[in-house]
């Protein structure tokens, strides 16, 4: 099965967890895209929910599909969030931020009671780290911040957009992509990165996912 179909299968399964009256966090990326589409379909069929997005891209998509949107000022908690990931281990430790939305994704995830990750089987790894860790940093002095990250043992580069300019996140920050190789102790590395002055947040999502829905190439769905 092709990658798009697998993304659809995982997304469709995740949307089954959403019930009337819930506040739902909307992820970012090409897999979360399908979850937003399926949610819109269920809303047309009568499902009543309010949603909060992890990026302007997902916010705009959701609004264009008629999904009712809310914000943190008007809610206490988020019942379910459905998001993609760049890598997951079988014990649900994640790398996220390939779409540069990791900061809002982590804020939404931290406010969520039941955090669902949807992936195809290619994202499941034994050890995290083949995918470079995206790190959101403030623009001021980012070269110095990048050197500190490098001193932790990474090869680093500031992320560029399609026009070759430094990519700016929704929060007007930059992303440093840091290659640490395969990571032995993700929790420790997460702390070490976030202790660097100038770092806002990093793409290691440790002990956050409640379930990971994996779509396999043969069309079966596995829930981790
Ligand atoms: O973390 C993310 C965006 O910041 C995405 O969830 C992650 O990059 C996966 O994206 P896709 O589903 O397109 O592979």
Automatic annotation (TrEMBL):
Pfam families: Rib_5-P_isom_A. One of its GO terms (biological process) is pentose-phosphate shunt, non-oxidative branch. Substrate binds at residues 28-31, 83-86, 96-99, 123. The active site is at residue 105. Its EC number is 5.3.1.6. GO terms for molecular function: ribose-5-phosphate isomerase activity. Keywords: Isomerase. GO terms for cellular component: cytosol. SUPFAM superfamilies: D-ribose-5-phosphate isomerase (RpiA), lid domain (SSF75445), NagB/RpiA/CoA transferase-like (SSF100950). Pathway: Carbohydrate degradation; pentose phosphate pathway; D-ribose 5-phosphate from D-ribulose 5-phosphate (non-oxidative stage): step 1/1. It catalyses: aldehydo-D-ribose 5-phosphate = D-ribulose 5-phosphate. InterPro entries: NagB/RpiA_transferase-like, Ribose5P_isomerase_typA_subgr, Ribose5P_isomerase_type_A. Homodimer. HAMAP family: Rib_5P_isom_A. Catalyzes the reversible conversion of ribose-5-phosphate to ribulose 5-phosphate. Belongs to the ribose 5-phosphate isomerase family. This is Ribose-5-phosphate isomerase A.
């Amino acid at each position: 099965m092709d990658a798009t179909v697998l993304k659809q299968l995982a997304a469709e399964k995740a949307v089954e967890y959403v019930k009337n009256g819930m506040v739902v966090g909307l992820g970012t990326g090409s897999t979360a895209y399908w979850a937003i589409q399926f949610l819109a379909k269920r809303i047309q069929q009568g499902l009543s929910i309010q949603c909060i997005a992890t990026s302007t891209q997902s916010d705009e998509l959701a609004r264009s599909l008629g999904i009712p949107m809310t914000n943190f000022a008007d809610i206490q908690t988020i019942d379910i969030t459905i998001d993609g990931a760049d890598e997951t281990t079988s014990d649900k430790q994640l790398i996220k931020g390939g779409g540069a939305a990791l900061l809002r994704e982590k804020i939404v995830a931290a406010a969520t009671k039941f955090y669902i990750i949807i992936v195809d089987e290619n994202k499941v790894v034994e050890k995290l780290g083949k995918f470079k860790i995206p790190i959101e940093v403030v623009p001021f002095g980012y070269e110095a911040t990048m050197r500190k990250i490098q001193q932790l043992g990474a090869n680093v580069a500031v992320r560029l957009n399609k026009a070759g300019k430094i990519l700016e996140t929704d929060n007007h920050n930059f992303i440093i992509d840091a290659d640490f190789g395969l990571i032995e102790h993700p929790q420790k590395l997460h702390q070490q990165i976030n202790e660097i002055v100038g770092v806002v947040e990093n793409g290691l999502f440790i002990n956050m996912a409640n379930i990971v829905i994996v779509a396999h190439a043969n069309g079966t769905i596995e829930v981790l």
